[in-house]
Each structure stands twice: as structure tokens, then as C-alpha cells.
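Hi P.,

Sorry for the delay on this. The queue was packed all week, but I finally got your sequence through. Input first:
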Amino acid sequence: MTDDPKTMSISEIKVPRETVVFAARATMAAEILAIIGALFGLAAAAIPIYLFVKIFIIG
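Then the structure:
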């Protein structure tokens, strides 16, 4: 960072600790929901493939 008085580093901005904790928890919850959603998506895609293989290929 330069010594220009118009610029300001991120560490100088005061943020309440509760805001940081809330943001971290919200991000973690969103990641968990995204992982669960991806697993459900994989299951929904795998079921018709499994049935197709079971019925037409294996017999």
C-alpha cells in the first residue's frame, strides 16, 4: 500500500465482530446447502441411468 491519504487498507476498516461471525456462518450454511443440492442432483441423474442399464442391458 502507498502512503497516499486517500487510500485505506482493509485492516483499518472497523467491522463489528458479530458481523464477521454471521457472515462466516452464512457462508458455511450456503456451502453445506450447495453440497446437499449437488448430491441430490447426482442422485436424480443417476436413477434413470441405473434403470436404463438394469432394464435394457442387463435384462
